Amino acid sequence: MPQYDFRCKACGQRFSVRYKSYAHYDAATPRCPACEASDLARLITAVAIPRSGRDYAKMSSGEMLSVLESGDGRQVDDMFKQVRGRDEADDGPAPSETPS
Ligand SMILES: [Zn+2]
Question: What is the pLDDT of residues 40-62, one digit of tens each?
Fold first, then answer.
């Protein structure tokens, strides 16, 4: 579930908004809870991601979004490679899907 932090340009109020999905974020117009202004600055929450040793496949979608939005092409590349590699290794039915 993506969560975004905003700062109101009118009154300086900081607040967070959670969306059910990225599509909801696209459709929604967030407003300041204090003064209802829609003139907001979006705060990119910095996520500390080590250069190596990160298991991207275990990341939540929110964390992945943070990587994508960080604009760090190498990190994004690494993430997709790891996620894709995991998919290829999972050839065939998943072991957990045993018919009952
Ligand atoms: Zn405000």
Answer: 998 876 555 555 556 766 777 78
Q: For the chain, how many structural domains are there in total?
A: 2
CA of 72 to the centre of ligand 1 (A): 31
Residue 69 in any domain: the answer is: yes
Instruction: Tell how far the Cα of 32 is from the centroid of ligand 1, in angstroms.
Output: 5
How remote is the CA of residue 35 from the centroid of ligand 1, in Å?
4
Q: What separation in Å is there between the alpha carbon of 29 and the centre of ligand 1?
A: 14
Q: Is this prediction's pTM over 0.85?
A: no
Q: Are 49 and 34 in contact (CB under 8 A)?
A: no
| Domain contains 97 | no
Instruction: For residue 31, give its domain range.
Output: 1-43
Mean pLDDT of the chain: 77
| Alpha carbons 97 and 29: distance in angstroms, whole number | 40
Outline where the chain has alpha helix (H). Answer: 22-27, 61-70, 73-89
